[in-house]
Amino acid sequence: MDIVVGPKDGFSERIAEYLNLTFVPLHRRVFPDREICPRIVDAIKGKSVLFVSRTSGADAFHPNRYLIELYLALTNLKSLGAKELNVLMPYFVYARQDKVFREGEVVSAKAVLDLLKNLGVKRFYTVTAHMQREEGKLRFYDEMECYTIDGFEEIGKYIKAKYNPENPLVLGPDLTASSGAETVAKVLGISESSALEKFRDRDTGATETKGELPELNGRDVIIVDDIAATGGTMSKAVSMCKEKGAGKIICAVVHPVLAQDCLNRIRNTGAEFIGCNTIESCISKVHVEKKIAEFIKQHS
Length: 300
Prior knowledge:
The protein has helices at about 10-20, 60-80, 110-120, 150-160, 180-190, 230-245, 260-265, 290-300, and strands at about 5, 20-30, 35-40, 50, 85-90, 120-125, 135, 145-150, 170, 195, 195-200, 205-210, 220-230, 250-255, 270-275, 285. The protein is α/β, with parallel strands linked by helices and about 300 residues long.
């Protein structure tokens, strides 16, 4: 790769710095009706490009805007003569649907990757993809090089450095988060982690959380998940931990989507709330740029 192209948000520049590549800014213009016009003014012709596409939780329509900007920017890079296109999408939008859950639905994760493949993208990188929590190649898509980079390890490092919890329990608020809980526990040097069970009504979206927790008696609890959207699952887990006598509770997510009233919902429980900076938000304290750059160096 020769250059990193992305918005001037600090994140893209640090990716370029860690990769020892030139940074080229993406200029964003937004029209009154919210149409967007990404512009690149530096020389691109003949260059191998890593395009960084990071969303902001401040934009209520960010998944759609994020994806359209990506499409327009990649189309622009092709027209400007880029030799090779690679994409870093820290938060993989539309990744929830990696299979058909109800008849008539689209597999949106595959549709997004098909879009990128058809634009000529060679490699795709994301952080803790929703359908695959462990690091490595995305298993469900083999039509181009697709990788997911572990964000839970960086959460563990941050918590160890900032909080240094004693005798903690690391908890996943549902079974799909159990591998993330295990990763954080390993970084903290403890053997104990657990996970609750979440049941979702496919038609209404309503969820129910069940599971048995040990008596916590003032122990610190770290609740980890890949995404906090509305915060309902995580706030329920906080309540269950409090009922068992937990002391300090830290909620940590890789992707702080923070839709609706998620931020206040978690904070009103009294729990600490942190996330990775895969999405720009007020709780994005855990930096993943260095980890991403190290992975890209090994897989490019």
